[in-house]
Amino acid sequence: MPVTIDLNADLGEGFGAWQLGDDDALLAVVTSANVACGFHAGDPAIMARVCQLAASRGVAIGAQVGYRDLVGFGRRDIAVPAAELAADVAYQLGALDAFCRLAGTRVRYVKPHGALYHRLAVDNAAAAAVVAAVARFDPALAVLGLPGSRLLDRAAEAGLAAIPEGFADRAYLGGGGLVPRDVPGAVIDDEATVVARAVQLATSGTVVAIDGGEVGVAPQSLCLHSDTPGAARLARAVRAALTDAGVAVQAFA
Q: Which residues, including other chains, have CB under 8 Å from residue 180's CB and lie 6 or more apart?
């Protein structure tokens, strides 16, 4: 079977007068858009614009749900009771769903953001709460997350499509987690390195960890962060290299 991979990016992460990342340029490259839903970033006008543009370009739209943390960009771990977390996720899904409908499309998957993403890799109760909210909202939604995470385990048990994700522009720990952002070298912005890692992830399902060993990831989707320096340039280079390597780039949802 030919190798296929999805390319996703975190989009709509501005707020009001503040813009983060080049949504227009990235939407010309990626096949899936993780749209911020107003909790860690994004606002109604931005959500409407990104959904309309993604729909017009045939890019699948996913809800990037996060902690209620605009000040910390959703990257601060917050202790949220399970019932409250489930309600927060449902709220964000409903908001994005409205703008998808106005754009003539629908939400196709869910991807947690930042600190919530990492929490859901190891916290079974939090993962179960998020999955329950997603399943009640729409059991046809896929869930995108870290391979081997509690989130993907609970999603699969609930009958949701559990999609493992890889990162071409982030460093990995030997156990398969991501190197914390405050550690030097956690974010990779060298084009040749990012491109090589993307091709390796797509073709062999592995990536070299920060300790020099190989980690098995087997992703169905590759994330390129929109706030990585030169993100649009990196995305174009990655997609071209994947095509040259015989990898078909297409949305998983």
A: 186
Helices 124-137 & 82-102 angle (0-180, nearest 10): 40
Domain of 175?
A: 4-249
The CATH number for 49's domain is 3.20.20.370
| Closest by CA position to 68, among listed 99, 36, 32 | 36
Provide the strand spans (E) within 41-89.
60-65
Token pair for 99? 């703008």
Yes or no: say if 46 and 15 are a contact pair by the CB < 8 Å rule: yes
pTM, 2 dp: 0.95
- Per-10-residue mean pLDDT, the chain, length 253: 88 92 94 98 97 98 98 95 98 98 98 97 97 98 97 98 96 94 90 96 96 95 86 94 96 90
- Beta-bridged to residue 172, according to DSSP, are 178
What sign does the CA torsion over 56, 232, 236, 161 have?
Answer: negative
* Amino acid in position 107: V
Q: Which residue shows structure tokens 């109760």?
A: 125
CA distance 46 to 37: 9
* DSSP type of residue 163: E
**Number of compact structural domains in the chain:** 1
